[in-house]
Amino acid sequence: MYYAELLLVGLIWGCTYAMMALGLTLVYGLLRILHVAQATVFTLGAYIGLLAANYSGSLAVAFIAGAIAAGALGPLIYRFVYQPILDRPPFVALVASIGVLIAMEDGFRLLFGPYGLSFEHNTWFTTTYSFAGMTMNLVQIWMVVTAVVLLSAFAIFATRTRAGVAWRATVSDPPMAESFGISVSGVRYVNFLIASVLAGIAGVLVGLLNNLVEPGMGSVIAYKGLAIIVLGGLGSVPGTLVASLALGVVESYGTVFLDKVLDRDAIAFLFLIVVLMIRPQGLLGRR
Amino acid sequence: MDYYVSVATFAALNVILALGLNLISGFCGQVSLGHAAFYGLGAYAAALCSVAGVPFPLAILVGVLVAGIFGIVVGFAALRVREDFLAIVTMGVGFLFLGAVRKQPWLGAEMGIAKIPSPLDKWGYAALAIGAAVALVVLSLHVRRSWMGRAFGAVAQDEDAARTIGIDVAGYKITAFFLGTAAAGLAGGIYAHMTQLIIPDTFNFIQSITILAMVVIGGIGSTIGVVAGAILLTLMPELFRFINDYKLLVYGALLLLVMRFSPGGLAGLLQRLGLRLA
Amino acid sequence: MQIKSGSRLLVAAALGAALVAPASAQTIKIGFHAPLTGFAAADGKSALNGAELAVEEINAAGGINGRKIELVVVDDQAKADQAVPIANKYIGEGLKIVVSGSYSGPTRAAAGVFQKAQIPYISSYAIHPDITRAGNYVFRTSFMGEVQGRAAAKFIGDIMKKKNVTLITLNNDFGQSLSAGFKEAAPKFGVKVISEYTYAMGDRQFGSIVASVKRDNPDMLYVSGYFFNGGPLVAQLRAGGIKTPILGTEGFDTHNFIKIAGPAAEGVMITTSLDRDSKSPAMRKFIDDYEKKFNTPADMVAASTNTAINVAAAAIAKAGSDDPAKIRDAIAGTKDFQVSTGKISFNDLGEIYKAAQVQVIKDGKFHHQATIDDPQLLAPPMK
């Protein structure tokens, strides 16, 4: 029973990672950028969601506001940070992205204070359901449902819609896609929009889970997101999902059984290193 | 006066760290996001030796070797994974080092190692750090011009092409990692004895990023540029003390702006003004 | 954006002035470094507030022998390698006393520098045992981690009468020293540590620990951490259906903890040095004045820096001189001094003895639960 509960905990963590990592994979797949600044988008979504919730009293409003704010910031970062340096070596974009993250983390602290903010009425957190000796609260249930729904919606978008086909064509061969009349630049904006909305919603959900929205809340999850997309095989969407869930489960067992030897981040990265040494292309990556 | 001596010593340590990373990332093209781990390895190894009564020069040497040997191990990893995969693996090495040290009672866990003997005075450490930094500058300039430097350059440019013309890619990669991480180990050993206390948090991911930022802001691959970058970033918090509240904001914005407007860093900026740096 | 309070501007201006003009003979400058930016900025803010309140009140009461005091504030980002240049800078500017409002790393690193320069240095709330061992110029006005852990063991064994305890320990110097002190003292009070789980500073999700605690089913939980990780942890324990009583530590001693944990905070107890129901005028005055000035309830960090500044000011007054050696002697001679965190005296190592307070959260506020006054158990080390 105990082991089943740890598995469940791991899968919930995995869903959180997946919402973050899918966006990172989308950006990497299209532009080969390790988009660390996604953490900024995530944190902004959480802050705006929290302010909206405390102002309106409605969590639905919170998610919409968080998604809009995040959805606006992501494409802006693309336009003003990445687009001008796309033809540079990859570390240039990475360092610029880290710069955005550091500056904005401090910016959030100056704007919203160093102590972090909490939801005034976090009813989802206090609503719990028990079954078979395991307890889940409503935020955790929503985390799983949202991840499953949004990721399925993305899969349908990518395979069944014209826009999705255009997106996939651009990922695999931009000049060819352009010659078929696809606006590559338009695809990139949509790409950042989708990635950012996912991150914004994840931000609000994590804010609810912790009942705390704080300036640095995005960084750890962003670093782990990078580990996940590498683990999954850079640019592979199914690989990202598998890696997210696998990492969540490894951490869940690891934090209890490897407690005396390694901390949670180290467990995650040890798993990553071991997998990559065996499969250098990642779990589902192609050589 | 003491203040300037301590700032100069830290600047020299940062020059050593940044030049070490520049050997790996600038010369040989292997991006590393975990350089602070080797700084930490050197510091911990040297500190443990000194506390056990090993003489100071020997302790420093052990720090250098331990960092270098682990560097070779990571060099082998670099044979297996490349580019962005390698960047994330080295980042993982940093987290793994920190996460392991935090839990080991014999390494002091979170308390770190205290009461490290300090055989030199502040002038001694300043002289040692600056001397080592200058030696590393000379070494860097020399390597750049040597056959090894050219081979590094070929590996950085195009690994497969380098292999076809008979360059021992694996050997050069491992050499670059050994030299670069051994330099970090040297900085670690000096740091440990100078402050007489080391704690895990000093060697965290932010420290790795800071070292990378020195290299990148200075101009990746340019020895003199990287020295300038390291000195500039060491002085920056000192110069900006009066803006206590906005320091990190300014720091992050600086990284962003340099990358946005002069991706070649300071060296690239000067080059555009018609000056060439080594 | 309400970033800078008027007083903060003054401090900044004063700092600017200190850089260009020689110190005026009229004011007494006290160095004060704290993590104003970076991950520890929340504590840095409280630390600065507590110190500023002390300065304001001392000056309003006429200063020290007619001279005003002034803080020279510097941000250290809670980084050890920033602390060494900061310490040297203070010494270069001719400061005669410095107070640390920061964590163990920077405080320990700076302590060595101040000891060498023979400048008195007071640590407000950093808990690393080696800080005061830097030498006779270094003092600490808060509990050491081990001491607080021992107090917790006594409270759980003697007062709560609980036997089987699970520890949830924050993996940093604070958490590890609390855990060490607790485990050392536990057998004396018939307390058995049946399991211990640890977590890292950045962790906010504790599902695997909650599941494990549920399986272990202890009589009591001893939880270390700060409000930003302890708050989510306590909330998740309660949401996971665990009703076991929880004893926390002074890291939870802020209303932010209650805000984050929400209803789950009810009934949580903590060991600390700040007694909200205290009759002590110094403690009472601090709690009321702080809330009035900053519009937010006082916390342990603020009380600690407030205490340290008051100790420093009293020592300067008693020394009647700017000679660092005389100020040091005056600090060392502090005896039964009433401050916001209780009645304090220093031992030969520069550590204090004071009674530990146990507070309980009721109706969203901290209240008195018990006082652990055991000079033998809570004695700090002498060397």
**Proportion of β residues of chain B?**
under 5%
What coarse outline of chain B follows from CA principal-axis ratios?
globular
Radius of gyration of chain A: 19 Å
**Main sheet overview of chain A:** 2 strands, antiparallel
The helix content of chain A is over 70%
CATH fold type of chain A? ABC transporter involved in vitamin B12 uptake, BtuC
Whole-number mean pLDDT of chain A: 89
Number of helices of chain A: 12
In short:
The complex is a heterotrimer of chains A (287), B (278) and C (383). By secondary structure, chain A is mostly helical.
Can you describe what's shown?
The complex is a heterotrimer of chains A (287), B (278) and C (383). With 287 residues, chain A is mainly alpha-helical. Chain A has one domain: ABC transporter involved in vitamin B12 uptake, BtuC (Orthogonal Bundle). Chain A has helices spanning 2-31, 38-56, 59-82, 90-112, 123-126, 138-160, 162-172, 174-179, 184-210, 219-232, 237-257, 264-278; strands spanning 128-131, 134-137. Chain A has a two-stranded antiparallel sheet with strand order 1-2. In chain A, helix 1 runs antiparallel to helix 11. The radius of gyration of chain A is 19 Å and the shape is globular. By secondary structure, chain B is an all-alpha fold. Chain B has one domain. Chain C is α/β, with parallel strands linked by helices and 383 residues long. Chain C is 43% helix and 19% strand. Chain C contains 12 helices and 15 strands. In chain C, strands 7-6-8-9-10-14-15 form a 7-stranded mixed sheet, sandwiched between helices. Chains in contact: A-B, A-C, B-C. The interface between A and C is large, with 45 and 38 residues.
